[in-house]
Amino acid sequence: MKIIAVLMLLALFSTDIRAEMLFDFEKIEAFSGRINRSTEQVKEGDCSGEWSDHPNNSVVKTTNIPADWRQYNVFSFWAYSKAANNGEFLIMFTADGPNASSAGDYFYRRFKIDWTGWKHFEIPTKDFLVSREPTGWDAITGMIIRCSGFGMTPRENSILYFDQMERTLNAAYPPSMPDKMELPPFQGKLHYTGMPWDNMFELAKRDPEAQQYLQQTIDFASSKVEANTFYMRVNSIARMPDEFLDKRYKDSDDPEIFAQSSYDMYVTGKLRYIISAAVAARYTGDAKYINAVNRQLAELATWDPVQRPGWTLYTKGRSAKDMPDGRGWLATGYFMSSVIPAMVAMGKHLDPKVEKAMKELLVKEVKGLVEDWKSGKPSHIKRRAYNSNQWMLPASALILATMYLGMDEFREAYDLGVWALAKSITTSGSDGSFMEGYGYSQTTTQIIMEAATAMKQAGDLRVSRFPFLTNHGDWLIHIIMPGKYVVDAFDCMNCKLLDTPTPAHIFSALMADRPDIYWGIRNIFENPNDNRHHIWLPLAFRYFTLEAGALHPPKSYAWYPDLRLVTWRSGWNQAKDVGLWIKGGSLLDGHSHRDQGQISVYRGDEAILIDSGAVSYSMGNVLDKMSRAAGHNILQPFPVDPPGKPVDVPVKVVSLDENSGSVEINGKNSRMFCDRWIRKISWNKIGDIIIADEAAFTKSVDKKDPWFIYHTGSVKQLDIKKMNDRKTEVSWNRNRMTFESDRDIEVAQELFPQGMDLKPVEQWIIIVSSKSGADRMKLTAKLAVAGD
């Protein structure tokens, strides 16, 4: 497996980091033995954990620790020592195997107390020593800290303070995944099975609902064929339909090349219709469907390469002669996820000449994709952008193409695709969250799920066990706010869903196979059985969920630590319930805005506090304005620039249940010259929300500059009522928001462009500033959401 070995070595040069807090010692009840909550020496936050009196308190332990560490490769912590006395202590992670003795099975690391003051420790999990036969880093049962036994003698003058214990995924260290143990080569037969169409047809004979979905698939195919739907490759801007023309070509030094590459991306996203037409051909045997599909496939077989290079030429100063584009990109993924299922669905009706021509093209695509990864030339490969759609779609395409070809000579290429997909999955949220947000998840995770499903059908289970795949459907349900709103973050380019679930929703639900997610698909959307170009999906959904049994609603709240995101809603009534969306920040965020600390609030169809959003990449200055701090309900002074730069902004969930919630956000890292920014948000079921901010800078904020902005989503002017110099009430649409500060403030309003209707619409924002220059402020905002 030479390719995989090379790529594993190349991964050493990536510096992406994802961290999850294990213990910040603000609370210490998780430990048995004495670790005392202390304010004497603190690295971060308000407290640290003091471990003293070692002769009488030599062992402390906890079982309150995550079990599965496979997506993390480093354990780190800060420790303060009062005396460098050369004492010793162990940190042990228990993972008892089936034959564990009373002494247990564990990973451990020994530390010498040879320092004073604060010291940071960062230990790759691969560097922990092994005692007996621990099950693995996917079965951790506890953590023990001890200074006795193992030849150690507790020292009376040893006093240690622990803080910020974290587990991280740090690509500066050799990845724990994949390696020969985690990702062995697939020994089974390479083959692409596809959907069990004939079984679905049999179901339709006895199940009226399945028959309805089959008929709507045929009707849709008929409408496309009768409209003579047919996509051709276009080689000039003059011939490109406006819907496939990226307006950024006007800023390119090579506009034709950029436009052609963009055209390929857009048009391949429309090819899904041929799957429905192929299903109709298979079911009816009607020549009109057979001929239409073979004709379109014959045209597509001439698209060599599928994705023409040039997608990086969207700005001036970039030339086609030195562009870092390879053979495969987004169009390659879209193409494979439509063409391959369609050819399999056609069965005996697929023209042998078309099949031969398409296989010849697929061979070229496979070889080109392999060369992309071997050379490292494309920027997404060079950057190790594992959590990017630019990495995931070509990886999925490589899997689908090699499985369809079924040739042993491409077995290594197949394993390369699996490796690349596994890297994406393991750097995506184990909690199911997608690090590029909702909008990009729709174009990416559908194809990931298809590739993973195809692997599973062929007996290759190497990626299907990773939690992202089974949890993503949960995230896609909870990301939806009342009124079917989605927060327009991460370049979402959307703010409200259609009446139908997307393919990503359905494929993710099928992968999760959970009755609560199935309930969400059927009840959140008014018309769950319609899916536009993916019209056949309801038939598949019916087939696979028929045996699911009784469905039930999901819980009404969720915490996604990988994305630093909390969602909460008062219930699942789309028309009247209250919903909150609260975000911190992760270093793995992609397509992000300067929105760390954002809170969005909805009630039914009303958007009360919103994200200004992103409408289109061709909007230029307007999009730039929306993506900055001014486009969000957050602290305004001295934001880190550019707005898309990821920053680490932890979120601490204090409490969260179906009735209420409370979180604390440490936003310091999102600001320059910042000593402190702590945002505390609490709420209840009736719509009372308190946002308490405390911010301090090393530079003064001018009195004319805003401290905080809130986007109301209201097109009507706001009613502002000054109570006194430090308290002001703002009302709109029966909602009331009161601002109270520790200093004299001014509260004003102005119009700001929002993306609520997928185009810039000006709505009113609230601006809070200080009456005089200041370097610190406390502000409490109390929002009372209007009731029925």
Structural features:
17 helices, eight-stranded antiparallel beta sheet, six-stranded antiparallel beta sheet, 788 residues, alpha+beta, 27 strands, Jelly Rolls
Offer a quick outline of the entry.
The protein is of the alpha+beta class. Helix content is 29%, strand content 24%.
Number of strands: 27
Portion of residues in beta strands equals 15-25%
Overall 3D geometry? globular
Strand order of the largest sheet: 17-18-19-20-27-24-23-22
Number of domains: 4
Q: Structural class of the helix and strand makeup? A: alpha+beta
Instruction: Give the C-alpha Rg.
Output: 28 Å
Quaternary structure annotation? single chain
Distance between the termini: 63 Å
Low confidence ranges: 1-16, 174-181
The number of helical runs is 17
**What percent of the residues sit in helical stretches (DSSP H or I)?**
25-40%
Main sheet makeup? 8 strands, antiparallel
Average pLDDT reading = 88
What are the SSEs and their pairings?
Elements: H1 2-10, E1 17-23, E2 36-38, E3 48-51, E4 59-62, E5 74-81, E6 87-94, E7 106-113, E8 117-124, E9 129-131, E10 142-146, E11 160-170, H2 197-206, H3 208-226, H4 255-268, H5 273-284, H6 287-300, H7 330-346, H8 352-375, H9 379-382, H10 389-405, H11 411-427, H12 437-457, H13 467-478, H14 503-512, H15 515-524, H16 537-545, E12 557-560, E13 565-569, E14 578-583, E15 599-603, E16 606-609, H17 621-627, E17 651-656, E18 660-666, E19 674-684, E20 688-701, E21 706-714, E22 719-724, E23 727-732, E24 735-741, E25 745-754, E26 761-770, E27 774-784
Antiparallel strand pairs: 1-11, 2-3, 3-11, 4-10, 5-8, 5-11, 6-7, 6-10, 7-9, 12-13, 13-14, 14-15, 15-16, 17-18, 18-19, 19-20, 20-27, 21-26, 22-23, 23-24, 24-27, 25-26
Helix pairs in contact: 2-3, 3-5, 3-16, 4-7, 5-6, 5-7, 6-8, 7-10, 8-10, 10-11, 10-12, 12-14, 13-14
